[in-house]
Amino acid sequence: MIKSKRFYIFLVFVGLLTVCCTEEVDLGLENNAGVLDILVVEATITNEFKNHRVNLSRMDTILDTQIDSTFNPFTPVRDIDRDLVKYERNARVSVENAIGTAYNFDEISPGIYESVEPFAAVEGQSYTLNILTADGKTYTSEPMVIEGFLDVDQLYAERMTNNDGEEGIGIFIDNGQGSGSVNNLRFSYDETYKIVAPFWDESDFKLSNYDPCALPVPTYELEIVPRETEQQVCYGNQVSNSIILAENNTVNSTGFNRYMIRFLDQDDFMISHRYSIEVTQMVTGSESFGFYEKLRNFSQSGNVFSQVQPGFIEGNITSANGDRDRVIGFFDVVSVSKERIFFDYMDFFPDRDLPPYVFNCLEQSTNESHVSYCYTGPQGPNPCPQSIIEQVNLGLISYAGPNTEDIGPCPSEYIYVPRICGDCTVLGSNVKPDFWID
Questions:
Q1: Which of 78, 230, 249, 342 could in theory staple to 430 by disulfide, Cβ–Cβ 3.0 to 4.6 A?
Q2: Residue 147 gets which letter from DSSP?
Q3: Which residues contact 228 (CB under 8 A, 6 or more apart)?
Q4: What's the superkingdom here (predicted)?
């Protein structure tokens, strides 16, 4: 089972690959006329020369307190990101430095704005974020500068047992000498992992000319054909969804050692084969650190609902009339240092079986066809699962071989598995990342 839990403050940007069941709680803010006008801003530019991004959305009166992400083999996969976020469309976004150079941003997808030209934040130069929304409202940040620089000396993984007695792999970071003010650090990570479909077969179903309403029986052509695309080995990706902060209080900015960024349980599906993590370390200012610390504490508080109110967490962005309670977010300018590592499961657990697959894959079989959808005569109870052609038409199953042992309550000549078990593209991309090292 694919299962994860995420906490949401106001409206946090989400990224899940699978069908999810959400638990929503009404905050009772409908009577506050300004709630739905609150703009949510996520914006950080760095000293990297690249196309930077700004994310814009709107506050909602529904707070998603958790998502239990569970793959349902009977339901086509949908993109839940588009359902949970009220994206702010058609805004004009720019970042301007102290000497008047403006970097304009285009909307590349709903609520996601990317700089037209690549640029890098420069030490000693201040930057200001400007937003003009489609309804004519203006928002501006305070000028922000890079506070300091601190390199990652080493990123490494170790087999360990955590404080809860769970055995797994810890991801640690060591730092060295810094320059400027490097007391406040924020981290994010990007994980990539190899996925191998356990019931992949070189052949798959091909359904054509399907008319489920034809009479007296449905018409169709079902073939077993070679797969045309790579569906055995894929690469999954997941970015950090928690706020990771550290205070570097050592003397003379000498950095710190053995700071744990991530813990992976020994049965975590992501480390089943080959796993990679890239950690980004950001040197931030005290104002930014305080904002994210409040945000993190707020998300972990047991009094989340009683504390939700506009203006509870102040950022550095204001509306044109100076009201901070019409916008939530922080425009940050940081220096970054990145490191990436790779490892295989067998590097740390050579005597253990691989972690279980994310879904309990069982070979099944059932009737190839079904009663016409337009049949109006008498029908008795149907003890059989949904027919093969119906499931193929919905993209729910993968071919697993001939049914030589009469598997299933209503066996046909074919064995199938839920698509997640035979097609890795349900969970990831079949394109190997450019940075990947086998």
A1: 230
A2: -
A3: none
A4: Bacteria
